[in-house]
Design brief:
Layout (H helix, E strand, L loop, with lengths): L1 H50 L13 E4 L11 E8 L2 E14 L2 E10 L4 E8 L49
Antiparallel strand pairs: 1-2, 2-3, 3-4, 4-5
């Protein structure tokens, strides 16, 4: 009988502990949910301002988003979120996420801003799985390579020039 009593006592104690822990997690989530959402929006705005200067728009980009249809040119089989920048009520640029397949260890997720004239104002790699010290030069903190796409467009850069140098283009490539 002592074993059954001990098991019951420990089970009740463990159950109470689990309920208290779940309650604490729920309360913490409720208390921090808005702060986390605000931090995500601020981080996103900071990333937007890195690729599109803040003086190029006067609207709230977080609220000016649309979904672009899935397109292989965007590297996605799923719709892609885009943010419409406006200045004085006129569209000045679009910021969108795209996927560059063909990284050594997988896809490169990019954030790209293109102005109303089709000129890339900036781009950043927002995630990758490249090997540290080798392929991670796609990160701005590691090299300025990602900046080489700025001020490029289909009008000032031929399709051939959009290739890597080994294929006759003007962009460097990295190999491990």
């Amino acid at each position: 009988m002592n074993i059954i009593h001990s098991i019951r006592k420990n089970s009740i104690g463990l159950g109470i502990f689990a309920i208290m822990t779940a309650g604490l997690i729920a309360v913490t989530h409720q208390l921090t949910e808005h702060t986390i959402e605000d931090n995500i929006v601020q981080a996103q705005l900071s990333a937007f301002n890195e690729i599109l200067p803040a003086d190029r728009y006067d609207n709230n980009l977080a609220e000016a988003n649309i979904m672009l249809d899935a397109d292989p040119l965007l590297g996605s089989a799923e719709p892609v979120q885009a943010f419409i920048a406006r200045k004085d009520g006129q569209v000045s640029a679009i910021i969108f996420e795209t996927i560059a397949p063909g990284g050594y260890n997988g896809n490169l997720d990019l954030l790209v801003a293109v102005d109303r004239n089709g000129v890339v104002t900036g781009s950043r790699v927002i995630s990758h799985k490249e090997t540290p010290g080798l392929g991670d030069k796609v990160d701005l903190q590691k090299s300025k390579w990602i900046l080489s796409f700025g001020d490029k467009s289909l009008e000032n850069t031929s399709l051939k020039q959009w290739n890597v140098k080994k294929d006759g283009g003007e962009f460097d490539q990295f190999t491990g």
